[in-house]
Amino acid sequence: MPDCSSFTCSPAPLTRPARFARWMRDHSSLIRRIQWGVVAVYLFLIIVPALRPLPDDHARILNDLTTFAQFLFWGIWWPFVLVSMLLIGRSWCGVFCPEGALSEWASQHGRGGAVPKWAKWGGWPFVAFCLTTIYGQLVSVYQYPKAALLVLGGSTVAAMAIGLFYGKGKRVWCRHLCPVSGVFGLLAKLSPVYMRVDRQRWQHTSTGRVIPINCAPLVDIRRMQGASDCHLCGRCAGHRDAVELVARRPNAEITSASSPTPSAWELVLLVYGLLGVAIGAFQWTNSTWFIAAKQGMAEWLIERDILWPLNDNAPWWLLTHYPERNDSFSWLDGGMIVAYILAVAIILGSWILLWLTISAACQQGPLKDRLLRTSDTLIPMAACGVFLGLSALTASLLKAEHLSMLWLGPTRAALLGLATLWSAWLLWKQTQPQPMIHRILAWLAVSPAWAGVLYSWILLFWLW
Ligand code: SF4
Questions:
Q1: Which of 213, 228, 240, 246 to mutate to test the pocket of ligand 1 (most atoms within 8 A of CB)?
Q2: Boundaries of each 4Fe-4S ferredoxin-type domain copy (predicted)?
């Protein structure tokens, strides 16, 4: 360790991650070229399939562009973007995300207005995630290219419009409004790398000329703690000799008492969003409860001679409408899908919140702080669930290729088991400073929440 008591010491040799981040900083034009390359692939994948006729029953990944794009986009790209958050933080956002790159580019040429108050509302990540997830189900975003173009293209246009109006070379969209930014921020808490800011060094190395950093997602770099907000673009690497990319234990941010307390909106996004709305959205197509409720409702309507909800005449951009594929949602379908997803979110989310609160009450310290910190321990289960839900499409596309899927069930079970053990371990480590009896009670109290989440996935993958 260098002696930095006077802050005139020579810095310690740079670690490999720190050197890599500085290399990124010094090769920003290469990163920009990568971003434009991803933009080109992204636009091709969302636009070209939407202009082609729907694939027939013989279409396969390797002989049909639309099916290939569907597999690449939803089967590989999205699930593994989520996994990348756990492995390399939000590098996806800072280096590869086409929407972020386009929003920043638009902002460079836009009006440059101040970020409005409404955009800074802390609930946007939750609301945007829920609305996009539910709307995606209504228009069958994973199945139909036109729907994918509408949802993803609409989001990209909105990101560019926000860029045109607000910020100068910034990513106001990514910071405040992106539907998955909050989710990525939660998952990045488990990242084994992050940008560490040495506050003391920052204050004491300001003698020379300090070059301002353009942090596109508007992070307050000086006060930055943790990996949630940083897009790991590398631009601030080495700034004031105080900011470096460093490796850490993946559990550190959640188990350390010195980490910032999560916000209430982060809890809501985790409990009612990732562990509620997302599970409901993945579940409804297979749910026997959904089918029974829909049949019951249809009979109820028919008995009263209310027949219009049974029509399937909604346009494709409102409800799935592909008569040539015998796939059209009636108004009743649409209403029931929304009701089912919201019911799962409210019931499962409230169940989880109840046991988290009881667990927090079993611990010493302010209840709100304990509750918010305890909720973070569920991130591995939430991440695993979303990955399994998204990769269900990967599995069904591979099944259509006649690939053996015998490994699928055991792999799913193993991942769910490991994620639960990880969450349990996080809680155990997080409560380490507490007396043993408090730790045990807190741990036991949260176990019904784990059981609720596991049961939801068991229903979907094995019982229905
Ligand atoms: S703090 Fe900002 S500038 Fe620094 S790496 Fe993160 S996103 Fe880039």
A1: 213
A2: 72-111, 159-190
